[in-house]
Amino acid sequence: MRARLAALIVFALTGVASLVPSACGSPTQVRRDVPLGESFWLDAGGLAVLREGSMVLRFRAIAADSRCPEDALILCVNAGSARVEVSLASEVGDERIFHLDSNEDLGTAERTVDALRVRLLDVRPTARAEPPIDSHEYQARFIVTRPVAYVSGRP
After folding, report:
1. Domain with 103 in it
2. What is the model's pTM?
3. In sequence order, what are the beta bridge partners of 111?
């Protein structure tokens, strides 16, 4: 089991290295043994090895950020949304890439993949006009759970 988990981490890290800015010089964030049902923060490019199911969740990048800046000199018509690119990888190497939006009104704040429900809870820093947010500054808070149908044993 440890060998399979180590192989899964290596698999996940190989794709993450290209997402971390080289100027930043810091290693990719890896959270190990993350339990289902507890929220956690990931840096852009970071990954979480889930305790159950031998899966790795990766916060690949911010795909778009249309949130209303708190320092905006104009009145925003809507709150906007931060669109997060995420992947979920299994120990056999299957990687599913999908997007989640921070604005729950869009109906895309969560997604069920491979019997796990991944939900985006928050994105930081708060949107601002100046200075622009650099891609490596982003962090996202997630929670991963099993949908009720899977917990009860029904597919």
Report:
1. 2-151
2. 0.77
3. 118
* Closest to 18 in 3D by CA, of 135, 100, 113, 107: 135
Coil, strand or helix at 115: coil
Task: Look at the chain and report how many structural domains it folds into.
Answer: 1
Q: Is 54 helix (H, G, I), strand (E, B) or coil?
A: coil
Residue 12, φ and ψ in degrees, nearest 5: -65, -40
Q: What is the largest CA-CA distance in the chain?
A: 55
pLDDT, tens digit (0-9, with 9 covering 90-100), for 1-49: 444 444 444 444 444 333 333 334 455 889 999 999 999 999 999 999 9
Q: Which residues pair with 82 in a beta bridge?
A: 65
Residue from 92, 103, 129, 126 nearest 11 by CA: 92
pLDDT at 151: 52
| Integer Cα distance of 77 and 100 in angstroms | 22
